[in-house]
Amino acid sequence: MNNIHPIFDRLLQRADREKLLNQKSKVLWLTGLSGSGKSTIAQELERKLYNEGFLCQVLDGDNIRSGINSNLGFTIEDREENIRRIAEIGKLYLHSGLITICSFISPTKVSRDFAKSTIGADDFIEVYINAPLEVCESRDVKGLYEKARAGEIKGFTGIDSPYEAPVSPDVEIKTDECTVEEAAQKIFDNVIAKIAVTNKTI
Which of 25, 39, 103, 106 does the annotation list as catalytic? Predict the structure, then answer.
């Protein structure tokens, strides 16, 4: 570590980029069971934000695991490393002035707290994508729940690995009670005051 000399203080700062983009950067962390609707809502929210003039970036579980985290499995240690890397990427986007939408199961409170501490509590918006397990299974287009129940996948969240639901998320979306469009609108309505600058017309 003695050979590492960061130059963060000599680079353009977050405020400079936010001024250029005319927005306030935040990290929206979507957590929920597989099949709860995280990815679908993230896509809809990204499009809505874009249409309203905000520059944003989605980080999705499958996309990240097919690229930067392709060397990780699903052991507890690998899952923790998966979240650590994602949080660091989210922090980089935050300081680039972007609004980042992270869509990950992140099943434990510890993992989400770690992400929050890495990104910063003031910039971390926890969004609980809440759907009953039976609803998630009914949407199982990948066949993952079926394989997990058959014992073909071990350590699958919601089946033989627990999901610790957020106790007091910033936003909670019950996807069995609303459409994708309504879900994205609710999140947008909850974050707009945190991402818009005073001279931006929405």
Answer: 106
Order of all β-strands in the sheet with 56-60 = 56-60, 99-103, 27-31, 124-130, 171-174
Report domain extents, the chain.
12-193
Q: pLDDT digit string (tens) for 80-98? A: 898 999 999 999 999 999 9
SS3 per-residue string spanning 59-71 = EEHHHHHCCCCCC
Q: What is the CATH number of domain 12-193?
A: 3.40.50.300
Where does 14-123 show beta strands of DSSP type E?
A: 27-31, 56-60, 99-103
What's the pTM?
0.89
- Diameter of the chain by CA atoms? 56
CA–CA dist 49, 167 (Å, integer): 27
Token code pair at residue 158: 């919601």
106 is catalytic: yes
